[in-house]
Specification:
1013 residues; alpha/beta; 6-stranded mixed sheet; 6-stranded antiparallel sheet; 40 helices; 29 strands; elongated; disordered C terminus
Length: 1013
């Protein structure tokens, strides 16, 4: 079952959705209601009571006052005092009394507020004095050309019109309070309700005017007379307000004046033995329903219970990560009573925001929450199962102004703009982090920032801020994940410019920029040229590799002419290109032009072809990470500057420690950023080249791997090349002797070691060798396996011989075994040892003449013949050699194809050869594009090989890398005669469909082994 959201469980009032509540609810006042000029929400009784919650205090107030006015109250009290904090429902209660005194006409839910029988049935005179509208200097226009300057002047006119004012005009003009009898005359023996509101504001006005100081004193006399007049009239009632807290202390913006009034009235009560009945229109536990009634015309209680149960389960699941209050039963009960308002909303606003002197508790909350509801119903966030603090979208200008202007918190405007919600397309930190890390998710970072900000709004420093546990409780919900909350919190704390950065401080905003912002300002002063110069030095250091480097660095060449084509110290070259010279995006589809030019050409005019192409590796920057590299270096230079003693002295001690820590860490940060930027490697290859005309492939170093060893960037390049089997170091095993033979000119039979070594630097199809160690071990491995023979001058080194030194020069030659055997180079000719005759005793020592070894003419060995070239040409050469040596017939022919495609075509016709036993041998393997590998070795008849070929053909076409060798053996039972045209017919048959390079060998019949050349 889908959990309800606030949009399905609640229906806001129309004026809330329209945003008109700010004008209607807060522009109204008591005087306007009495005069009939207030907005409809206050002027008409039905509209007023529809949005009013019947608090216990309001019910008591209406019942007691109406009993007095209707005369049914017996000994009911005559004087009532409404004690509550500023914005706690005082004026709202007075307006409710006005409508009740007038009979609550049109109200359908009268019984919710008062027993209908208690309502007055006759006209009630209503007079009110509102200290906020009073004008003791200029007088307040009452109508009929009358201007009243005092509370008694205004009340006299309200009770008895112009005639009533004339009765006290002298008192009003003279600022002297009238007596109790004069006041009582104004009642006219009718039910009378007198309301006094905001007396503290009036008191401040008169106290600020020196010539009106006596008026303040006369207020006490007036109240004494008024109290006496009301109590002596059986149908008169007086209600006045006083903004004091539960402890009897004034707390609002006029606390000094309220405290004076409190003292004054207590003295009056003490002297006259008259004590007012104290009432509180809205108790603390009634704030939630008061707000809910005003904001919403419908709340589905069943859906509310479903949501609260879901929250309760989440709070229990994450109990250890939240504040203790999360799992207390009363928390869930309060949530259900206040739904859709999350418990944190009211707790924070009442315990923190309400500590501001100018925050009117219920009225102030209503302002903030009404605008929040309007924004939510416009934006419809998908995670809104309830209304949280983080749904207060401070990018909304009206909500922002409630904080900045009405609460007078303009000092936080820079923090709002820079960290929480930017203006006019200028994204704040929270918005930028959301765009980068939480795209498609709720804006976690903005939610974190908003919650911290609301918790910052408190008068007392000790109340400002929030802990991580408290933040999680405030934010977590069915669709808000705790782990994302923590992740966003950490990111925001790291990036914020205005969060308090003092050790141990809770998360809260400061009016002044924190160390993060100070560092950013220093970064802005760093010259781009300095950043570039420092970066070039650091990049060079990271990829040089130190004294034991595998590759030789060529840093920032301007063109091919700066990339040498010489062997140098024998290490392959790592060509490091400047990030401003060339960079590539995340998807690389072709070789950059500069890289291609350097790979193909050399020389001052870049016209000569490069020889050692398999000696170069190119390292190129990632386009998307260049700016991060520049930023990291700018930050490092800024921190280095701030670490200077004279600059540190300007900072607080905790900030000094932080600068030292950050400066130390910045070196690693720069190294990691550089390695993450320089992650594109272009290397010589034929198997994986990107385009047909450039023998270069591309690979990218994994971003996590680039930060594994910050400062050792060359190691990552070497690692990725070794993983691709492109680079061989002294630690690696050499390639198989057969592979080296078949992939190099050694397949012709002989090659000098220098020429063979240079081939590895020239041919992109071969691996790159670091130094000569692996190369020499490869030759030695071939000798020991019986594939090679080595000769240097008189030294002949073959299989079975003790190890000999192998040199890389033009005087040293490597032979294939077939070639060495054919040319009678191997095995060595045997030299006979002369017999030794023992001397006869007494004979003089014999003079042994020097032994001259006989000249042995070895017989030509023609049992093995070989040739290499295009298949048709190789076969023709083979038969020519055999006939030239008077071979009559061949017992066996072996054909080794160098290309798998050519081998598969030959396989199709090999089976048609008659008079011969056919054997096929496949060896090698391939690697798939996803990194899978297959190694194979097959020996068998052509029919079985055809089945294997059908499987291999598509696999090899799709393979990332492949190396399959094919050998075909034809063994003739009676020999292949060379005297006729049988060899030519065989050649025609074999080459009808097959071509390509091949290496062919043949063995003569045993009867022909002594044939001479």
């Amino acid at each position: 079952m889908t959990l309800p959201t606030v949009f399905t469980a609640c229906t806001p009032r129309d004026d809330v959705l329209k945003g008109s509540i700010a004008e209607s609810d807060f522009a109204a006042d008591l005087a306007q209601v009495i005069r009939g000029t207030a907005p409809d929400e206050y002027r008409t009784p039905e509209r007023f009571y529809e949005t009013t919650y019947p608090t216990r205090g309001l019910q008591n107030l209406l019942a007691n006052v109406c009993r007095r006015l209707s005369g049914t109250g017996g000994e009911a009290a005559a004087i009532f005092r409404l004690d509550t904090q500023f914005g706690g429902g005082k004026t709202h209660g007075l307006i409710a009394l006005v409508h009740a005194a007038r009979g609550m006409e049109g109200v359908s839910n009268v019984a919710e507020f008062i027993e209908p029988g208690l309502l007055p049935t006759t006209a009630v005179r209503v007079a009110a004095f509102d200290g906020e509208n009073a004008d003791p200097l200029n007088g307040r226009d009452m109508g009929d050309g009358i201007r009243a300057f005092t509370p008694w002047g205004e009340i006299a006119y309200a009770l008895a019109g112009a005639a009533g004012y004339e009765r006290v005009r002298a008192s009003d003009d003279g600022r002297v309070a009238p007596g109790a009898d004069t006041i009582r005359e104004l009642f006219g023996d009718q039910p009378t309700l007198i309301l006094l509101d905001e007396l503290a504001i009036y008191l401040r006005k008169v106290m600020l005017a020196p010539h009106l100081a006596n008026t303040a004193g006369q207020l006490a006399a007036f109240l004494t007379g008024l109290f006496k007049a009301v109590e002596s009239s059986t149908k008169a009632a007086l209600v006045y307000t006083l903004a004091v807290g539960k402890d009897g202390r004034a707390l609002d913006a006029y606390k000094e004046e309220n405290q004076k009034l409190q003292t004054l009235i207590e003295e009056l009560e003490s002297v006259s033995a008259r004590k007012a009945t104290l009432l509180n229109p809205t108790e603390d536990d009634e704030t939630a329903p008061v707000l809910r009634r005003r904001l919403f015309k419908r709340v589905d209680e069943e859906k509310a219970k479903q949501v609260v149960d879901a929250y309760r389960a989440i709070w229990k699941q994450h109990e250890s990560a939240l504040i203790p209050a999360a799992t207390r039963p009363e928390t869930a009960d309060a949530f259900l009573a206040a739904y859709p308002l999350h418990p944190e909303v009211l707790t924070t606003l009442t315990e923190k925001t309400a500590t501001f002197a100018n925050f009117q508790r219920v009225r102030g909350m209503l302002r903030l929450l009404a605008r929040t509801v309007a924004c939510m119903w416009e934006q419809r966030p998908t995670d809104a199962n309830a209304i949280h603090l983080h749904h207060m979208d401070l990018s909304d200008e009206r909500l922002r102004q409630e904080v900045v202007t009405r609460l007078q918190q303009g000092n936080y405007e820079p923090a709002l703009k820079r960290d929480i919600a930017g203006k006019a397309g200028d994204s704040a930190v929270a918005q930028e982090v959301d765009a980068e890390h939480y795209k498609g998710l709720p804006p976690y970072t903005s939610y974190v920032a908003r919650t911290i900000f609301v918790h910052t709004l408190a008068f007392h420093d000790r109340l400002r801020g929030i802990t991580p546990e408290h933040l999680r409780f405030s934010m977590v919900g069915p669709l808000i994940d705790v782990s994302f909350v923590d992740d966003a919190r950490k990111r925001f704390v790291a990036e914020s410019a205005f969060l308090d950065d003092r050790p141990g401080a809770p998360m809260r905003f400061l009016a002044e920029a924190n160390l993060t912002q100070i560092i950013r300002r220093q970064e802005a002063q760093i010259e781009p040229g300095d950043v570039r110069a420092e970066l070039r030095d650091r990049i060079r250091q990271i990829f040089t590799g130190g004294g034991s480097a595998t590759l030789s660095l060529v840093p920032f060449p301007g063109g091919a002419y700066e990339v040498p084509d010489e062997v140098g110290d024998g290490r392959p070259l790592l060509v490091l290109l400047g990030y401003d010279a060339v960079s590539v995006g995340g998807v690389v589809e072709k070789v950059p032009h500069l890289v291609e030019r350097m790979f193909k050409h050399k020389g001052q005019d870049e016209s000569a072809p490069r020889g050692n192409r398999n000696h170069l590796v190119f390292l190129v920057a990632d386009e998307g990470r260049k700016e991060e590299v520049r930023q990291k270096m700018a930050r490092r230079l800024a921190l280095r500057e701030m670490k200077k003693p004279e600059r540190l002295a300007e900072l607080a001690e905790h900030q000094q420690n932080k600068v030292r820590e950050l400066e130390s860490r910045s070196e690693t940060d720069v190294a990691v950023a550089i390695q993450q930027c320089y992650r594109h490697v272009f290397f010589p290859t034929r198997a994986e080249r990107m385009t047909d005309d450039v023998d270069l492939g591309h690979t990218a170093i994994d971003v996590p791997a680039t930060g594994a060893n910050p400062g050792a960037g060359q190691n990552q390049v070497v690692r990725v090349l070794r993983d691709l089997k492109k680079l061989r170091t002294s630690e690696d095993e050499p390639d198989s002797p057969a592979y080296i033979r078949d992939r190099t000119p050694l397949r012709r039979g002989e090659i000098t070691t220098r020429t063979l070594r240079e081939e590895f630097r020239r041919d992109p199809a071969l691996p790159m060798l670091v130094g000569d160690d692996v190369f020499l071990r490869g030759i030695r491995k071939g000798i020991e396996a019986g594939e090679y023979v080595y000769r240097n001058g008189d030294l002949l080194y073959g299989p079975g011989d003790p190890q000999a030194t192998i040199k890389v020069d033009e005087q040293s030659t490597v032979f294939t075994m077939a070639f060495a055997t054919e040319r009678a180079i191997w095995p060595r000719p045997l030299v006979p040892t002369p017999a030794v005759v023992p001397p006869t005793p007494g004979d003089p020592p014999a003079v042994t003449p020097p032994v001259v070894p006989p000249v042995v003419q070895p017989k030509p060995v023609v049992s093995e013949l070989s040739a290499e070239g295009v298949l048709k040409e190789a076969l023709a050469q083979l038969f020519e050699k055999a006939r030239a040596r008077k071979v009559m017939s061949l017992a066996k022919i072996d054909i080794r194809m160098f290309d798998a495609g050519d081998a598969f075509r030959l396989l199709g016709v090999i089976g048609t050869v008659t008079g011969a036993q056919k054997q096929v041998h496949f060896e090698g393997g391939y690697e798939t594009v996803d990194g899978g590998t297959l190694n194979l070795e097959f020996t068998g008849p052509a029919t079985d090989a055809s089945v294997l070929k059908d499987f291999l053909e598509p696999q090899l076409r799709a393979a990332r890398e492949k190396n399959v060798q094919a050998n075909f053996e034809l063994r003739f039972d009676t020999g292949l005669p060379l005297t006729g045209d049988a060899p030519e017919k065989l050649t025609e048959r074999l080459t009808r469909y097959a071509a390509g390079s091949a290496y062919v060998t043949a063995s003569a019949q045993a009867s022909d082994s002594g044939a001479s050349s």
